[in-house]
Amino acid sequence: MTGELDPSQIRFVTRGVTPEEVAAVTAVLTAAAAEQAAAASDARPTAGPDAWARSQRRLRSPLDPGPGAWRSFSG
Fold first, then answer.
1. Mean pLDDT across the chain, nearest whole number?
2. Confidence class for position 1, pLDDT limits 50, 70, 90
3. With 0-12 CB in 10 A as exposed, 13-18 as middle and 19+ as buried, what is 48?
4. Alpha helix stretches (DSSP H) within the chain
5. Residue bearing the bigger pLDDT, 57 or 13
6. Are 1 and 36 in contact (CB under 8 A)?
7. Count of H helices and E strands in the chain?
8. Contact residues for 4 (Cβ-Cβ < 8 A; gap 6+)
9. Which residue in 17, 53, 55, 69 could disulfide with 49, CB within 3.0 to 4.6 Å?
10. Taking a C-beta distance cutoff of 8 angstroms, is the pair 64, 72 a contact?
11. 8 A C-beta contact, residue 38 and residue 66
């Protein structure tokens, strides 16, 4: 259910329902709808990193030029 429960949308198909029964059923359904709406709002995931932040990689460390810096590549 989205939004608030509108009691005028409740239709009873059972005959001979007393006003007290209508009030009780309406109260229970309203409470259930409010509980469901609260649970749905709590279940929403918290905002994480956006697509741009997720696509970024850590920058590589700087290259250090100089004698012996490329030694590991000489096989």
1. 78
2. very low
3. exposed
4. 19-43, 51-55
5. 13
6. yes
7. 2, 0
8. 33
9. 53
10. no
11. no
CA-based torsion, 60, 61, 66, 68: positive or negative: negative
Predicted pLDDT of residue 27: 92
AA letter at 44: R
CB 34 within 8 A of CB 1: no
Tell me the two tokens of residue 9: 């949308």
Q: Residue 39 is which amino acid? A: A
Q: Tell me the one-letter amino acid at 72.
A: S
What residues does each domain of the chain span? 7-59
- Give the tokens for residue 7: 């009691």
Give me 1's structure tokens.
Answer: 């259910």
pLDDT of 73 over the 70 cut: no
